[in-house]
Here is the input.
Amino acid sequence: MSEHLRERLKRFKEQEEERLKEKVYKETLVSISVALNGAHLVPNVEGAVQSLKLPYTATLSELYDAAFLAFLSDVTIEFSEIRLLQCKDYNYSIVRSFSEKEMQLVIFHLKQ
Here is the structure.
């Protein structure tokens, strides 16, 4: 077999391996639907729900960041219209409310 055919065969095998790796990775992604609480802020109702695909190893903070960024592109919200609350547990026992300045820092960090 000539050298250029060996090279092509080698490149073909490498591409097949890459495709297989990508397929396996995509099959391990978890589909998550995130609904925005405050749909009146979204121009169309379809924009109130986003479907995300994340690795099953994603942490809760990574999920939050991905959801926030997904809505950030579609929704323009004034900081005076929203509040980020820190809750003690799933019963929403509010510990504190973040200030507008703190929210701006969060948004700035996520946009980078």
About this structure: DSSP finds three helices and four strands in the chain.
